[in-house]
């Protein structure tokens, strides 16, 4: 049985915060600092640590199948995918909110309590469907993969469900938030089998990280 620990980390905004946090418990991977590298797997042989750089939405899949023992991923992705993963820690970085938003022009005459049938564009169809079902609102979902704020501008949907951090993207596209669905932060996730087979190393990592996680939510820009 391998005594290496493999991490799946998202290539985007969460990567740096994750490596900074792991660095505080002595886990590092200097190979990752090579400028312009196109490598996807990095190793620190002395520490028996491997880091895979993957798409944020693919992190739970690599961890679920055991290709990675540990992952870091936004709660938005976990809510959307609903995979069977152990989620021991809220890492408190990567803060943003999952919201319902609409054009400012629509808001003036709109009352969300009167919605009965609406069309929504989103990267998060499962979360969106559950949210509106719980409110008794019928929703026609349009799945998009990015630039969600474009949808109302071109008449694809009246409303969107998307992440908001600074609010800059909504503002630049003349949109406003109307409801908050969830507050989002990054989470540590662990493969359930690894938790048993590599129990000592994984619990050392979890126990080491836990006291280092600040109460202050870090806003990502
Ligand atoms: N302003 C923000 N916009 C999007 N995600 C944010 C924001 N702030 C924090 N996050 C968190 O960062 C995570 C990853 O975002 P990132 O931009 O790296 O990936 P992505 O490009 O959205 O995903 P993918 O590469 O799978 O399409 C999100 O799932 C969310 O939890
Ligand atoms: O409130 P803000 O700070 O402006 O951030 C919110 C924006 O950031 C994310 O998009 P991302 O940059 O991931 O690009 P995407 O639209 O291609 O998903 C999100 O989907 C919003 O569009």
Give the biggest sheet.
6 strands, mixed
Query: Uncertain segments of ≥5 residues (pLDDT<50)?
Result: none
State the end-to-end distance.
Answer: 41 Å
- What would you call the structural class? alpha/beta
CATH third-tier fold name of the largest domain: D-Maltodextrin-Binding Protein, domain 2
According to CATH, what is the class of the largest domain? Answer: Alpha Beta
Portion of residues in beta strands equals 25-35%
Fourth CATH level, the homologous superfamily of the largest domain: Periplasmic binding protein-like II
General form: elongated
Keywords:
11 strands; 2 domains; amino-acid biosynthesis; D-Maltodextrin-Binding Protein, domain 2; binds adenosine-5'-triphosphate; five-stranded mixed β-sheet; 9 helices; alpha/beta; single chain; about 220 residues; six-stranded mixed β-sheet; binds 1-O-pyrophosphono-5-O-phosphono-alpha-D-ribofuranose
Describe this structure in words.
It is a single chain. The chain has 221 residues and is an alpha/beta fold. It folds into 2 domains: 5-94 and 185-212, D-Maltodextrin-Binding Protein, domain 2 (3-Layer(aba) Sandwich); 96-183, Periplasmic binding protein-like II (D-Maltodextrin-Binding Protein, domain 2, 3-Layer(aba) Sandwich), CATH 3.40.190.10. 29% of the residues lie in helices and 30% in strands. It contains 9 helices and 11 strands. It has helices at 14-23, 59-64, 75-81, 104-107, 125-134, 150-153, 168-172, 192-197, 199-209; strands spanning 5-10, 41-44, 49-54, 70-74, 86-90, 96-103, 117-122, 138-143, 159-164, 175-184, 186-190. The strands form 2 sheets. Strands 2-3-1-4-11-5 form a 6-stranded mixed β-sheet. It has a 5-stranded mixed β-sheet with strand order 8-7-9-6-10. α5 links the parallel β7 and β8. The longest helix is centred in the C-terminal third of the chain and has 11 residues, at 199-209. Adenosine-5'-triphosphate (ATP) binds next to α3.
């Amino acid at each position: 049985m391998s005594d290496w620990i493999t991490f799946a980390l998202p290539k985007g905004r969460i990567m740096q915060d994750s490596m900074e946090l792991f660095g505080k418990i002595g886990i590092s991977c200097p190979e990752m600092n090579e400028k312009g590298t196109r490598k996807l797997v990095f190793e620190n042989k002395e520490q028996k640590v491997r880091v895979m750089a993957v798409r944020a939405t693919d992190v739970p899949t690599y961890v679920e199948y055991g290709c990675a023992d540990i992952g870091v991923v936004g709660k938005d992705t976990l809510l959307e995918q609903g995979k069977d993963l152990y989620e021991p820690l809220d890492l408190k970085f990567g803060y943003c909110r999952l919201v319902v938003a609409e054009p400012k022009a629509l808001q003036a005459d709109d009352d969300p309590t009167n919605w009965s049938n609406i069309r929504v564009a989103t990267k998060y169809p499962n979360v969106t469907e559950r949210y509106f079902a719980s409110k008794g609102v019928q929703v026609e979902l349009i799945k998009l993969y990015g630039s969600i704020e474009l949808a109302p501008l071109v008449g694809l949907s009246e409303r969107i469900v998307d992440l908001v951090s600074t609010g800059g993207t909504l503002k630049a596209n003349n949109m406003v938030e109307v409801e908050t669905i969830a507050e989002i932060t990054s989470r540590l996730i662990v493969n359930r089998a690894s938790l048993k087979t590599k129990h000592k190393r994984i619990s050392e990592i979890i126990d080491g990280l836990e006291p280092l996680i600040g109460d202050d939510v870090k806003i990502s820009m």
